[in-house]
Write a structure and sequence with these properties.
144 residues; mainly alpha; 5 helices; globular; Transferase(Phosphotransferase), domain 1; 2 domains
Length: 144
């Protein structure tokens, strides 16, 4: 489990409770679970996987990482100028199910803008629940 100071950003008590149920392990470097020969790529992955967002690379910093040096063209990159609303994170009664639904609704919003086929939200939620149950069953088996 990460040090307590790395978890200060978590405001939702359910999320904190969940994190506290995870096994206590020291942070792992990407090389320990990804077999890849490119140390620059592994460095980028390590810098993107900090649990504390203030320590994690931003999208802009990630694009400036040496891994992308040979393919990056800043002049061709669009810059987001909109506003992102995360107010839902402050809802005291937010559940994993409602969060999943909000994410899928957001995906469909952008699919509509791109004139892509919309997701079937009830079917996608059922699939999420099925996969969650499988993962939970596996976790329960590992605890025994």
């Amino acid at each position: 489990m990460p040090p307590e100071e790395d978890l200060q950003f978590i405001g939702n008590s359910n999320a904190k409770s969940f994190i506290n149920t995870l096994p206590k392990k020291p942070p792992a470097k990407a090389i320990s679970f990804i077999k890849y020969e490119n140390p620059v790529a592994l460095d980028l992955i390590d810098k993107l996987l900090f649990i504390d967002p203030s320590k994690r690379l931003t999208a802009e910093q990630a694009l400036a990482h040496p891994y992308f040096e040979s393919i990056r063209s800043e002049s061709e990159e669009p810059v987001f100028t909109g506003k992102i609303d995360f107010e839902f994170e402050q809802e005291p009664d937010i559940t994993i199910e409602s969060l999943r639904k909000k994410i899928l609704e957001e995906v469909n919003y952008f699919r509509t803008m791109n004139k892509d086929k919309l997701l079937n939200i009830p079917a996608a939620l059922a699939l999420c629940e099925k996969r969650h149950k499988i993962l939970q069953d596996r976790a329960d088996l590992q605890k025994k």
